[in-house]
Task: inverse folding
């Protein structure tokens, strides 16, 4: 299935709060059996990670960061799980810093991540939800951006890429209007290695490239909170 | 047999001198005069004229339209038509009756046209103290409202998860879909909202939803999320901020406990588990729907409908939907715990609950009780150090209610034509969608 309704009551597993999350199960290399603590926290999230292409390419580039893909479609999540298991088996010691969970990031992101935990959030080729009345189902909305800002640390980056120009304009508009985000310029985009990985790594990105379609990129920096009135 | 429709909600002025009730699609105000031992009199009435059609309601519509015209003008009657067509099952329910702090305004939500209504209260007007001054429609059904401390702004939490801020005195916005953006939102149905000021004078909005979440956002900088309060495993249906200390918060819903929080620090102070207490009061009405039943047929589903607190005394009251008991808890502000203070058995199921300075006021599902037991006042008695029903006061209001409504065609219904009185437990999620 290409779509999943983010408003439905899915059969989902999620921790009741970030402290209850069993991260050791996803990243056993970073779990200290003696202290029962993780030695690292997830700092990169790929929201709607699809088939996991971005995660797989980011993994060797950011060996010091733990990365989590979140995907709402069950079969797709199962595929990514199998893909990561295979990669870990075939490359001993590698790909230990990436994993995936099935989840609804629009509802339960704060159940997984603490305030200011994340450094980067990726939104690659999200569902465009073309119809006007479905716009609240889009992954970038004014009200959700406040929640993304909560889990992102100051200076953290939101990456977006899409082949749908209308959706691109929508995401740029809402991120630009949000007081806690500021767009990063093209020069920054050309020097950031995540941007080039994002353009080329994802399955969706490759599909668009084969069709020689356009890819629209926009990246935004998390600004500090203003003084509370 | 026709009966007077049960009271769906009731709120009181600080000293119980004025009682506001919702009966079907009507708001009714009853007031005692200043004289000692005086009794309640009907002093105000407002009817939601956008009531959804139906033979038995024609009288209501005509009467209502006349009233609405004198109050507000054409926008009101225009609104009704669309909802008539598209949602035949909608009732002209009036929800979330809220009295402003200085008791000069009533706020409520109307299901018929998804609007917030604001009524001025003027006791100088001997004919009718209630006067509709604003009716603002919203894109989705408002589920809860909160009023800012200066009473100039109200926050509206809707069924779709969005919160809108509305200037009380601003003119009605006609094209709300195009002109007004939500100030914050959840991707889940919102069930309750509070406006709070912290110790150091910062303002916050607290919102509760069907996904177990309680979110705290700054105000007016509502784009800054302060924190979430994690702990609920089921939907949250009701939140309440006791007046005794500004950092306290109560919450309850589909869980077996009432939660007691320090919302400023984000700490769960304690829980009061009522699972055993409620057992004797559960009936076949609490059996889970058949598709969620087990073989033994003993899966029960229940939820707290409302939790409130007295303003002057450290007591909390809550009830479980479709039960005929009110639980009153005593709050220990030294150890931050809640303990059972009283169990008040009632002649019918509790339908609504509110609190004023030193009384709890509730309305009952009295459809089998022969036009009596509409409203109960529950008061703390200093001599016995316990709570009990103030029967004289309750029955006096009952008899005035009956007198004022028995010849009212709108309030008199067949017992199978009652508006839905139980709609909280159905918020429970069953995780039906697997993919």
Result:
């Amino acid at each position: 299935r290409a779509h999943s309704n983010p408003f439905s009551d899915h059969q989902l597993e999620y921790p009741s709060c970030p402290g209850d999350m069993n991260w050791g199960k996803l990243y056993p290399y970073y779990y200290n059996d003696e202290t029962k603590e993780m030695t690292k926290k997830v700092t990169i999230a790929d929201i709607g990670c699809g088939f996991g292409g971005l995660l797989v390419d980011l993994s060797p580039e950011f060996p010091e960061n733990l990365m989590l893909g979140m995907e709402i479609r069950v079969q797709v999540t199962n595929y990514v799980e199998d893909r990561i298991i295979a990669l870990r088996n075939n490359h001993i010691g590698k790909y230990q810093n990436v994993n995936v969970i099935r989840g609804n990031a629009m509802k339960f992101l704060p159940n997984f991540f603490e305030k200011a935990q994340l450094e980067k959030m990726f939104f690659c080729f999200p569902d465009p939800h073309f119809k006007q009345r479905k716009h609240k189902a889009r992954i970038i909305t004014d009200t959700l951006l406040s929640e993304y800002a909560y889990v992102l640390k100051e200076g953290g980056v939101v990456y977006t890429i899409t082949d749908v120009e209308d959706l691109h304009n929508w995401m740029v508009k809402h991120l630009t209007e949000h007081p806690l985000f500021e767009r990063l310029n093209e020069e920054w985009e050309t020097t950031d290695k995540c941007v080039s990985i994002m353009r080329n790594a994802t399955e969706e990105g490759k599909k668009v490239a084969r069709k020689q379609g356009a890819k629209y990129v926009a990246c935004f920096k998390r600004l500090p909170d203003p003084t509370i009135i | 047999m026709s009966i007077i429709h049960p009271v769906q909600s009731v709120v009181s002025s600080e000293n119980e001198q004025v009682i506001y009730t919702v009966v079907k699609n009507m708001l009714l105000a009853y007031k005692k005069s200043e004289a000692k031992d005086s009794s309640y009199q009907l002093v105000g009435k407002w009817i939601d004229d956008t009531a959804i059609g139906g033979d038995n309601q024609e009288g209501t519509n005509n009467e209502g339209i006349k009233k609405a015209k004198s109050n507000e003008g054409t926008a009101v009657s225009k609104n009704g038509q669309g909802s008539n067509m598209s949602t035949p099952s909608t009732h002209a329910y009036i929800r979330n009756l809220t009295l402003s702090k200085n008791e000069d305004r009533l706020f409520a939500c109307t299901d018929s046209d998804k609007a917030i209504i604001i009524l001025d209260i003027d006791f100088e007007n001997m004919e009718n103290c209630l006067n509709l001054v604003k009716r603002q429609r919203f894109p989705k059904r408002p589920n809860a409202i909160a009023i800012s401390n200066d009473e100039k702004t109200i926050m509206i939490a809707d069924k779709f998860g969005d919160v809108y801020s509305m200037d009380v005195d601003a003119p009605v916005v006609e094209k709300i879909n195009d002109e007004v953006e939500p100030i914050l939102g959840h991707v889940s149905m919102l069930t309750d909202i509070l406006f709070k000021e912290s110790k150091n004078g910062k303002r916050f909005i607290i919102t509760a939803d069907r996904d177990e979440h309680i979110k705290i956002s700054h105000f007016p900088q509502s784009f800054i999320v302060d924190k979430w309060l994690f702990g609920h495993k089921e939907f949250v249906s009701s939140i309440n901020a006791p007046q005794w200390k500004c950092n306290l918060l109560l919450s309850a819903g589909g869980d077996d406990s009432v939660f007691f929080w320090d919302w400023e620090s984000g700490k769960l102070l304690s829980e009061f588990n009522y699972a055993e207490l409620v057992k004797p009061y559960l009936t076949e009405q609490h059996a889970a729907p058949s598709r969620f039943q087990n073989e033994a047929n003993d899966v029960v589903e229940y939820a707290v409908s409302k939790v409130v607190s007295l303003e002057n005394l450290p007591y909390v009251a809550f009830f479980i939907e479709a039960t005929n008991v009110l639980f009153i808890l005593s709050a220990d502000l030294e150890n931050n715990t809640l303990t059972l203070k009283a169990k008040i058995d009632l002649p019918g199921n509790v339908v609504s609950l509110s609190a004023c300075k030193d009384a709890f006021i509730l309305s009952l599902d009295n459809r089998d009780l022969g036009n009596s037991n509409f409203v109960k006042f529950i008061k703390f008695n200093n001599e016995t150090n316990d709570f009990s029903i103030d029967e004289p006061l309750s029955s006096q209001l009952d008899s005035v209610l009956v007198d004022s409504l028995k010849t009212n065609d709108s309030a008199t219904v067949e017992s199978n034509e009652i508006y839905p009185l139980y709609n909280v437990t159905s918020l429970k999620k069953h995780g039906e969608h697997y993919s």
User: Anything to note?
Assistant: Residues 38-222 of chain A form a domain with the Rossmann fold fold (CATH 3.40.50.150). Chain A touches chain B through 39 residues (CB under 8 Å).
